Amino acid sequence: MLFIRATKRLLLVAAGGTMCAHFSMTLYTQYHLRHGFKSIFENQFQPVSGTTEERITKARQPIVEAVQALFEMTHKDTSNILALFSDDVVYEDPFVRCKGKAEFFKCFSLLPWCWEFSTTDQFEVTHHKDYIQIAQERSIKFFNRKAFQRSSVLLISLDLVDGQEKIKSVEDQWSGHPILSPDNSPRIGWLAVVFRKLNAKRIILSYGIQMNIYSYFQNSKQNDLDDTTVQLVEQTMTSHRGD
């Protein structure tokens, strides 16, 4: 009995510590987005120009269009763009980090469950040797919340595979602030990376469960459950979308 009580206490302490760490990193990330240092990406690389720019712009147009479509939730079928991404592609924004095609596209497949709409107000593309830099303004509306505007810089890192450029990583810098990492924030950067990884898995798991429950009760309309029960579940699930 003593062992069981001690184990329960340890689990409670671990769970409490994890929740406190998650809450603290969320607050710190929000503080960084408002008051943190700005990105210096523009000073590190020079954009291509002249005939090289024309050639690269044309060759990379499918990549640019694919990324824009993912953020606008207009890609109903992602199978036709899988070849544009490397197998170990990484997506990062201030709150999530996804690695690999499966996790990458799973995150983007959840956007219609979180966002009511996402429209592009500004989309300026600059091509670099191994990067595509996109300055964008986007109007976003979560379900049950007011619409808002988000300005960000997308840094799309490219890798040459069998003579074809593929997307190696997509970094979404909100409001011109770089994503926290050990390189720019040695004291807390490593913790920020762990936080984003775990947060991505939490989001995928929680919204995945909600989607499965919602789909189950949708299918149950044709089975034994009465309409009142189905409607109650639909209202409950809809009220949590975007939370």
TrEMBL record:
SUPFAM superfamilies: NTF2-like. It comes from the Eukaryota. InterPro entries: NTF2-like_dom_sf (IPR032710). This is Uncharacterized protein. It comes from Clavelina lepadiformis.
